[in-house]
Design goal:
This protein is of the alpha+beta class and about 240 residues long. It has four helices and 16 strands. It is about 15% helix and about 35% strand. The strands form four sheets. It has a seven-stranded mixed sheet with strand order 1-5-6-7-3-4-2. Strands 11-8-10-13 form a four-stranded mixed sheet, with no helix packed on it.
């Protein structure tokens, strides 16, 4: 689906004051480049840009300009560091009869039986793929069925069943999604220490008069052992 929006050519492109006035008018500065033509500085309304963005990252756009329409896709969007609103857009010219490379998001569908059997966790390794195709054949997303996914076999790029019109760029052996098992938690160090303490031989209590610490760690004084009673004196005769 091609989105048609109106755009205006920007005069004095790159001047800070001009860019500020464009943004104050609820418009977004942009540039068109690529193909056999030179770059063109333009602006479009925030509303039209939001319509394009909601249609997907690879939406085909027809920009209507005084010199004629330009068929483009969004190459990059820059955002305001504080407001997080679109601040500038780069559009790339395309030809509907020439293949281009774009990045397409990867979405998982279905459920693997091994998730319930083994309590495994699904780990999505690749979240987007680079593809080459004609602009009219660009998929909105690539859906990966994970029902066949098992503990011992991940789903790779080579496992994807896509149209012959779409070519995946890169190594086909790459894993897209795999299952991971949780390791059993090791015995807590505190519990192990308690076990060792119980197994250790009891230490004799000290009768020293030197200071000791009680259960709360407070310094206390030890109690000295009572001296042996003196032998009874003999009666003098």
């Amino acid at each position: 689906m091609e989105i048609k929006v109106n755009a205006e050519v920007r005069e004095k492109a790159g001047i800070k004051g001009v860019l500020s006035s464009i943004r104050e008018a609820k418009k977004v500065p942009a540039v068109i480049y690529g193909g056999n033509k030179g770059p063109v500085s333009i602006s479009l309304t925030e509303k039209d840009l939001q319509t394009i963005l909601k249609s997907g990252a690879n939406a085909i756009v027809s920009l209507t300009l005084p010199a004629g329409a330009e068929t483009v896709i969004i190459k990059e969007v820059q955002y305001h560091v504080v407001k997080d609103t679109p601040n500038h857009v780069d559009f790339q010219r395309i030809s509907m009869d020439r293949k281009i490379e774009v990045t397409v998001p990867v979405k998982l569908a279905g459920e693997s039986a091994d998730v319930k059997i083994y309590g495994a966790m699904v780990n999505q390794v690749i979240r987007e793929l680079r593809v080459r195709c004609l602009p009219g054949d660009i998929p909105h997303e690539i859906v990966v069925d994970i029902k066949p996914l098992t503990i011992n076999k991940p789903v790779t790029v080579a496992d994807l069943k896509l149209s012959d019109k779409i070519e995946i760029v890169g190594d086909a052996a790459r894993s897209i999604v795999q299952l991971m098992l949780f390791k059993e938690e090791e015995e807590a160090p505190a519990a192990a220490a308690a076990t060792d303490a119980a197994a250790a031989p009891a230490q004799p209590e000290s009768s020293s008069t030197k200071g000791k610490k009680d259960e709360e760690g407070n310094l206390t004084k030890g109690t000295a052992a009572a001296p042996a009673a003196a032998p009874a004196a003999k009666d003098k005769k």
